Amino acid sequence: MSYSSMFIKSLQIGLMGFLLCAATAWAGPASIQGVVKDAKGQPIKGADVRVQSRDGKQLLNTVKTDTKGHYISQGLQPGVYRVSLVVNGAVKASITNTNTKASQTTQLNFDLKPVTPGQAATGQKTGKHMVWMPPTTGSHTGGRWVEVDDGAADGANALNVKRGSAEALRQQQLSHPPGSVPGQGPAAVGGQ
After folding, report:
1. Cβ(150)–Cβ(131) under 8 Å?
2. Model confidence over 80-105: pLDDT tens digits?
3. Domain 30-115 in CATH: superfamily?
């Protein structure tokens, strides 16, 4: 085999590789679109549709529904995503295996179902839902999703979360020295 035929073979392989890379790069981004309807079949205006990584750790995009309940999230890389519907701050539905393909639109509609009479009679929610916790002041980390029991909201101090200012926290620290329990006076010294 001569050097010229090896050069031509190398050139052909290189050209094929280049064309394959170009075809992959030329393929457009994916998108997800759909319609959100309430239990009566009416479109829900202003609902948030959140597109996250499959594990839910990275929020990629949030879009709002229009007056007809339609939404579209564009510019996504082909892959698998978690898509969540948030109405009035509460997650109403979450689809964890939404698959998108290059240059194609994935249709994903949300039809909220009415509460059945059996569920309404018990008046008790079961299961869990996700709540968005914003980042804390002064931290360099973003917010995150937290899983919360539906039934836990009925109990006192359900989430054991108390909001306050930095000044209020400082006053609490000054009025309760380390080792003391708020509401029970100073800590006993030496186990007394």
Report:
1. no
2. 898 888 888 888 888 888 888 888 88
3. Carboxypeptidase-like, regulatory domain (2.60.40.1120)
